[in-house]
Design brief:
With 395 residues, the chain is mainly β. Helix content is 7%, strand content 41%. The longest helix is centred in the N-terminal third of the chain and has 12 residues.
């Protein structure tokens, strides 16, 4: 039996080229995922393998497979860009006088295979990285559970002595048809547009949202236009030819996750994420609908980033560790890491099939081993998930 297990581990430590990137691939009865060696990007992921209609919700950049000779070294994350990955520091910046890569080494450099373990119906992949800026070690663990369309994600941070913004970077593919993916979150206390202009037409980038504004509803966010003066930022893709950054901040509910759900109304499924808002209070939105024309974008990227973290939006280290509108409102916008004890960040992402006519999520309720999403029109969709993993770390 031991030799059989060893054989499985050896086979899974080998890399396969998936969407032009060397990747580790693991599979359960319900889910198959690929994790890139470069940057640890999670995609493609196929959910509902055991059904007649498998689902792949994550984005893979349209330049995958092209030579990245024109991508600046500081933004090498773009060469791999796909799915979800850990940003540390989120937005880059300087740490103790040293310049970090955009979204950090964890999203850009090579990870090392650690182990593959199979215990009953659970399959877990561990990969590691020794980080230089700031110095420390990260262990990434991805777990699949038979019978669930869910990816359980944990990052163990050891040996670090720094304060910095950290975020996941879940990036979803968007259909060509506008306004057919509806996004909802658990109730939030603060909404912010990005603090400065992100669109610079001289550099081939265009935005719609007015910088530095607050809002209380995703359906009414201030724009740079006279008409419409506000836009519904809960339905995507938004205006073709534009790229926007904004975000919301969640307060924790003891023992219950905060949630985000994106309903693909024409495809019959929803993608969801679950987090402990005491650890990851910020949800940054990256609304990209062919709004950038520099290399490698070239007006062809269409995706939606739903990025849960502890950060002041994707503004970088300096602005996240300093006083800012979110921190003044009582939200943590950076994480203090100590070499005296490791820090573990847990996160859950998954998919649920929805009945015909399910439009957008209004509420989510958490029962014994499941989450039930209730649509605004009264329809329901349930997903088996061990959501208490966020608080206990056990499956």
């Amino acid at each position: 039996m031991a030799s059989k297990q060893s054989s499985k581990q050896s086979a899974s430590s080998s890399l396969k080229t998936v969407a032009h990137q060397p990747s580790w691939v693991i599979r359960s009865r319900n889910v198959e995922l690929a994790l890139t060696r470069r940057g640890g990007h999670l995609a493609p992921v196929t959910f509902s393998l055991d059904s007649d209609s498998p689902v792949q919700p994550y984005h893979v950049a349209p330049w995958a497979g092209e030579k990245a000779t024109e991508i600046p070294d500081s933004e090498r994350v773009l060469a791999t860009l796909r799915g979800d990955f850990l940003c540390m520091p989120f937005g880059g910046g300087k740490i103790n006088g040293q310049q970090a890569l955009a979204h950090g080494e964890t999203s850009t450099l090579d990870w090392t295979f650690g182990s593959l373990t199979q215990n009953g119906g659970n399959t877990s992949l561990d990969v590691t990285m020794d980080v230089n800026i700031p110095a420390g070690k990260v262990t990434k663990t991805l777990t699949l559970v038979d019978g669930q369309n869910v990816v359980y994600n944990a990052h163990r941070l050891e040996g670090f002595n720094a304060r910095l913004p950290i975020s996941h970077h879940a990036t979803l593919r968007m259909p060509d048809e506008e306004r057919c993916v509806n996004v909802s979150t658990s109730p939030f206390s603060l909404g912010l547009t990005f603090y400065c202009d992100t669109g610079d037409p001289a550099n081939g980038c265009y935005q719609t949202l007015l910088p530095g504004q607050t809002f209380t509803s995703l359906s009414k966010v201030p724009t740079v236009f006279k008409s419409p003066a506000f836009d519904d930022c809960s339905t995507f893709p938004r205006f073709r030819g534009f790229c926007d950054l904004f975000g919301v901040f969640h307060k924790p509910t003891p023992g219950k996750p905060a949630w985000t759900a994106a309903v693909y109304t024409k495809e019959g499924f929803l993608w969801f994420s679950l987090k402990d808002a005491a650890v990851l209070p910020c949800l940054s939105f990256w609304s990209e609908h062919r709004g950038r024309w520099s290399t490698p974008w070239l007006g062809r990227n269409n995706c939606l980033g739903l990025e849960d973290g502890v950060t002041y939006l994707p503004s970088g280290t300096e602005k996240s560790i300093a006083a800012n509108p979110a921190s003044r409102a009582g939200f943590a916008t950076a994480l203090t890491l100590s070499p005296k004890a490791p820090t573990v960040i847990r996160y859950i992402q998954g998919v649920a099939k929805v009945p015909k006519g399910f439009d957008r999520v209004k509420t989510a309720t958490f029962g014994n081993g499941e989450v039930v999403f209730l649509a605004a029109n009264g329809k329901k969709a349930a997903a088996p998930v061990q959501w208490d993993y966020l608080f206990t770390g056990t499956l």
